[in-house]
Amino acid sequence: MSLSSANSAPAPEDKSSTATAARPSLWVRYRLLISVGLAVALLDQWTKALVRAYLPFAQIWAPWPAPWRQWIRIVHWRNTGAAFGLYQGANDMLLWVAVFVIAFVVWHFRHAALEARCLRWGLALQVGGALGNLWDRVMHGSVTDFIAVARFPVFNLADVAITLGVVCLLWSTLLDETPEDSTTVAASQSAAPAAGSEADAQPPRPPAGERP
Description:
Elements: H1 3-7, H2 15-21, H3 26-54, E1 60-61, H4 68-71, E2 72-79, H5 91-110, H6 117-140, E3 143-149, H7 157-174, H8 182-195, H9 197-200
Antiparallel strand pairs: 1-2, 2-3
């Protein structure tokens, strides 16, 4: 075996550039957040607009028969506090808290792996619910609540989305979904084979007693 043939071995493939090229676009990363967040916020605002337009304040609408009307009612109510009637009168402070939460979730969503479905759905639902209530605080100075279940505090669809988002995040923790982006992991894993490629490209040693 000659040294010239050994030196003509093909150069190792640059896998780091391949991993970088495979990084998903911003639309692929954020399309779930945008679509689910907007859908939740628009549905929440539509239902609140119907309540404000057709149901006077503090009035109850329950057209279904007993005993369901005693457990589930539509009530036009205004909430200047947090979800489920907490922290009444803190609308201005909660407005800025909602802005901070939305900004943090949007930033965290970028680093969530595409395979972490429960994590991404939970963050998207929370953004949609936060946007729905934030719009109420900015435009009306309070949040419109209208769903009354038994003696539970009156709430709205945005509160439901936020609660479901928390459930998804807890379920994601139980599933041990990693928040790290899979492309970052792939890039770090490809560095190990690339580091050993120089050793693989070395020409094999001839058997003992045989001259090259």
